[in-house]
Structure formats: C-alpha cells, structure tokens
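User: Could you check the structure of this?
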Amino acid sequence: MLLSMTNGHGHTALFTAASSGKTKIFKLLHREVCKTAQGADLKTFLERDTKSTILHKAVLSRNYRLAHEIAVKHPHLITEDDGDEMTPLQLLSCSLPVFGRKSYLMRMIYKGMHNYILHFFESISVLFILLV
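Assistant: Sure, the predicted structure tokens are below.
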C-alpha cells in the first residue's frame, strides 16, 4: 500500500506532512489512513520506532491548529513520550516563540482570533489535566 511506504528516514507521507506543517495534505492522508488501518495497524502510522508521534511532529513544526486536531482525534498521543522523554505539551512549553514577546499567540490576539485562542487554551488545560 502506497500510504505505508517510508522515505529514507523511515517516515510515512503522513509523518512528513505533519512534520512540514502541510495541513491539507495531512488531512487527506489521515482520512485515507483511517479508512484502511485500525488498531495496531493505525499505530504504525501515528508513531515511529523512535517513539516520536505525529502530534510531536505537528508541535515541532509549530502548526498548532494541526496539533490540536491530532490531539482531539487521537487523545492517547497526548501522553506519549518521544525519544527524549518529552510529551507534546512539554515540547510546546519549550517553544519560546509561542510564549515569548511578539509571539504567535499575541499576533493572533491582535488579529482578532480570540475565540481560537480561548479554544486553544481550553485544549491546553485539558492536556495538562490529563498529564497530571
């Protein structure tokens, strides 16, 4: 199956789309993967041998909307550690541009995206509660 083929780094197209922040491609591939794979087969698309997940990749690519979608669709990935024993929430907290001055969140506030921000923080608080 073409969806399960990997590149030289062992990443499927789904992983590559999450890593590079290609939201539309990710959604298309995710929909097709979910149609054909279930249970342990689906896990091979969501997690790598290095313990990194598609949620880790979305956070690292700073595609927070995609990360939120992944967390909602696959909540079990929220608590998964990567190879450095970091959860996606820990990776997010280490991302200085998100929480620093002139950050992504501040730009969203200035652009009037307060509803998205409220939803984002509700999601973060749910993630935090699940981790505690």
